[in-house]
Design goal:
α8 runs antiparallel to α9. A hairpin with a 4-residue loop joins β10 and β11. The chain is of the alpha+beta class and 349 residues long. It is built from nine helices and eleven strands. The chain is rod-shaped. The protein has a four-stranded antiparallel sheet, with no helix packed on it. A three-stranded mixed sheet has the order 4-1-8, with no helix packed on it.
């Protein structure tokens, strides 16, 4: 009887144990996170395997517990804020691990990778040892969302600011970026910005070259008062007409001189003609002095005719040059000329 009773009791305990195991197994299946690597998103239940230190909870411990509760409620953003606050107070492996898990659930793969690596680096920490498998699975999932970018800016001597998706990065070393479509931009004073939109496959490294071009000097605008430059002048350009040509003045002076010389020889010719008439009143002249005076009068008359003729021609040409240049002569005052690569403009004040 006692043997039969013990047998029935053992069967009842075994049945109860199996029922309890099935129930607990079902509950774990419902609350367990998706396996990192199956492509699914992390669930908040990855916070369940955690041990609370003995004694009264500290301020940091209170933040962690509240964050765990928020993660169970799928409020990952609020949980991350509390974990960041706790992380600022003390950068413990446990806080770094929880923060990395929350960031992984939010899709912040790069931030999650950093915090998960930080937690796993403390391999002798009891909490990390207990949850190492969970942390490594989350890290593998985050790494599959990331890639590497190596950025080259040219000219190499330009100190440029490089941003990826609007966030400044250090282009002197390779940069960890989220895989997929990325926008990389380089800017520098005095240079036109260079921007590239490209696709980076997960777990790959891509070399991106950004070429900066020096900006051209801005063209001066009407009404501006720029500083004088090498090519700027306050005088009219060489290719513009500015008053009559120099030849007009030479012709004016030469014509006046020729008229003066012609007039001088004309007076001498008249004087010698008068002397010849006095010495030789008739057609036939027997006075040698009269004959000489007559020859001098003829020669001086020729000189006078040539001088007067040249003077009249020179004065006529000079007058023509002065009269035809009146419309192109600039007004008196200041002339300003601005020259650029695209053209030039001038103003007379």
């Amino acid at each position: 009887m006692m043997t039969a009773s013990r047998s029935r009791t053992s069967k009842r305990w075994l049945t109860a144990y199996l029922i309890t195991s099935l129930c607990s197994g079902g509950a774990f299946a419902q609350n367990s996170p998706s396996a990192p690597g199956d492509g699914g998103e992390e669930h908040s239940a990855d916070t369940a395997p955690d041990s609370q230190p003995d004694g009264d909870p500290s301020e940091q411990e209170s933040l962690i517990e509240r964050a765990i509760e928020l993660r169970k409620q799928r409020n990952e953003s609020a949980a991350r804020e509390l974990l960041q606050q706790a992380y600022r107070e003390e950068k413990s492996p446990r806080v770094a691990g929880h923060l990395g898990l929350a960031e992984r659930a939010l899709g912040l793969a790069r931030e999650a990778e950093g915090h998960l690596r930080e937690a796993l680096a403390a391999s002798d920490d009891p909490w990390v040892t207990e949850n190492e498998e969970l942390l490594r699975g989350a890290l593998r999932y985050a790494e599959r969302q990331l890639a590497w970018a190596r950025i080259v800016v040219r000219p190499s001597f330009v100190k440029a600011k490089v941003t990826i998706a609007g966030e400044p990065v250090d282009a002197s070393r390779r940069v960890r970026v989220k895989a997929g479509s990325v926008v990389i931009e380089a800017t520098a004073p005095g240079y036109s910005s260079s921007r590239v939109t490209t696709e980076i496959p997960p777990e790959k490294e891509l070399l991106v070259t950004l070429n900066l071009r020096a900006q051209e000097a801005p063209e001066p605008t009407v009404g501006s008062n720029p500083e004088p430059r090498e090519n700027d002048e306050l005088a009219p350009p060489k290719d513009e007409t500015h008053g009559p040509p120099v030849s007009a003045y030479w012709l004016l002076g030469g014509g006046a001189l020729a008229l003066g010389i012609g007039s001088y020889f004309g007076v001498r010719a008249l004087s010698e003609k008068s002397t010849a008439d006095d010495l030789c009143p008739t057609t036939r002249c027997t006075s040698a002095e009269g004959v000489s005076a007559d020859e001098d009068a003829r020669r001086f008359a020729l000189y006078s005719d040539v001088g007067v003729g040249l003077g009249i021609v020179a004065l006529g040409v000079a007058t023509y040059l002065f009269l035809t240049d009146t419309n192109s002569r600039p007004r008196s005052g200041l002339r300003l000329r601005l020259a650029g690569r695209a053209g030039s403009a001038s103003w007379t004040f």
